[in-house]
Amino acid sequence: MSVPVSAPRGPLPGGPDGSDGAPRPLPEWSRFRFPQSLYKYGALLGSLAFVWWALDVLRIDVERLPGLFERLGTVLATRYWPPDLNRITQPDFLASVVDTFQMSYVATVVGLLLAVPLAWFASFNMTPSRRVLYPACRLVVMACRSVHEMIWTIVLVAIVGFGMLPGTLAMTLFCIGFGGKLMAEAIEAIRKGPVEAIRATGAGHLKVFVYAVLPQVRVAWAGIAIYTWDVVFRASTVVGFFGAGGMGHYLRESVQRVESREVSAIILTIVAIVIVAELFSAWIRSRIARALA
C-alpha cells in the first residue's frame, strides 16, 4: 500500500525563474525584544538631550520663535514691498544675468572636463595606481569640495582682482570637487564583468576605461553633469556679492545703498531664474536618461 507524499514548497525544477526546485525556508519572525528596544529608545533620548543642551549652550531663545513669522511679514511689507521692477529691467542688469549664465556654463564645462580624469584616478576599483594616483586625486577632489565656493571666491578675488575671472575659477574648483566625487562614486558602483572581459583581451587601462567603464556610467554622468550645472548656476547668482561680477554685484550695491525695494526685486529675479533653471535641468536629465538608456 503506497503512502502519499506531500509536494515540497517552492517552484518546480526547470521553472521560469531558473531555480533548481529546492524548497526555500520561510523567514523566521521574531519580536523586537529588550536589548534592541533599549538601544533604540536610548539613542532617541540621547539625541533629544543633545538638542536641548545645544539650545542652552548657543543661547537660542525658543520663546521668540512663535512671533518670528509675524515680524518677518511686517518687515517685508513695510521695507521690501513693492519691489522696484524698474531696476531689473535696465540693460546693465540684464547684461549681468547673461554674464551669470556664461560664467556658470564655462565653469561647468571646464570643471567637469577636469573632473573626468580625476574621477577615474580617484575611483578605488579602476584607478591605474592605488598607491600614487588614487590618494593624490582623492586629495585634490576633497580639497576642492571641502572649501565652500564663497570662500574660493573671496580668496581668488584677493589674488586676481574683481571681475568675472575669480567667479569662474571659484565655480570651476567647485565643479571639480562636486562632480569629481559623484563621478568617482558612479565608477566604483559598476559591474566587474565587462571590465574583466575587456581586460582578458589584453587591453590597457585607457581602453578598459573607454569600452568597459564609460558605457556603464554614461547615464549617471549625464545626470551628474546637468545637476552640477544647476548647482553652479545657483551659486553663480550670489558670488558677485563678493566681487566676482554677475547678478550678485548689483545685489551688493543695492544692499550697501539700503535700497530695500531694489534688493527684493533682485532676489525675486534670482528665485525666478533658479526655478526656471531647475525645471530646465530636470527636463534635460529626463531626456538624456531616455536617450542613453
Molecular structure report:
- The chain has 293 residues and is an all-alpha fold.
- The protein has helices spanning 34-57, 68-79, 85-88, 91-121, 133-146, 149-160, 164-188, 192-200, 205-239, 247-256, 260-292.
- The chain starts with 33 loop residues before the first helix and ends with a helix.
Number of strands: 0
Instruction: Write down the overall mean pLDDT.
Output: 78
Question: Roughly how much helix do the residues carry, as a percent range?
Answer: over 70%
Q: Based on helices, strands and strand pairing, what is the structural class?
A: mainly alpha
| Low-confidence regions | 1-16
- Which CATH architecture would you pick? Orthogonal Bundle
Per CATH, the superfamily is MetI-like
Query: In total, how many domains does the architecture comprise?
Result: 1
- At the first level of CATH, the class is Mainly Alpha
Q: Strand portion, in percent? A: under 5%
Radius of gyration (CA) equals 28 Å
Q: What is the third-level CATH name, the topology?
A: MetI-like fold
Termini gap: 61 Å
Count of alpha/pi helices: 11
Q: List SSEs in N-to-C order.
A: HHHHHHHHHHH
- What global shape is seen? globular
Furnish the topology, listing elements before pairings.
Layout: H1 34-57, H2 68-79, H3 85-88, H4 91-121, H5 133-146, H6 149-160, H7 164-188, H8 192-200, H9 205-239, H10 247-256, H11 260-292
Helix pairs in contact: 4-5, 4-7, 4-9, 5-7, 6-7, 7-9, 8-9, 9-10, 9-11, 10-11
